[in-house]
Amino acid sequence: MANGIVASYKSWLKYRQTCNELNRLTTRELDDLGIARGEISKVAKRSAGY
């Protein structure tokens, strides 16, 4: 059970880090990556394995 909690927490941390990093980018930089600002959460979830 503890391993599951730790794994969930690590996934959440990766999700938050990815969101934060992508939100720091300009719209132009996001466009260059092919990501719309409204898709940041979806991209971050995919990155974290959700």
Class per helix and strand makeup = mainly alpha
**Can you write the helix and strand succession as a string?**
HHH
Kindly state the percentage of residues in helix.
over 70%
The stretches of 5 or more residues where confidence is low (pLDDT under 50) are: none
Average pLDDT number: 96
Strand content: under 5%
Largest sheet: none
Q: How many structural domains?
A: 1
* Rg computed from alpha carbons, rounded to a whole number of angstroms: 13 Å
Using the alpha-carbon principal axes, give the shape.
elongated
The helix count comes to 3
Q: How many beta-strand elements?
A: 0
Question: Could you tell me how far the N terminus lies from the C terminus, measured between alpha carbons in angstroms?
Answer: 19 Å
Protein name: YjiS-like domain-containing protein
Domain YjiS-like: 5-40
Organism: Kaistia soli DSM 19436
Pfam family, one: YjiS-like
List keywords for this structure.
50 residues, single chain, elongated, 0% strand, 3 helices, mainly alpha
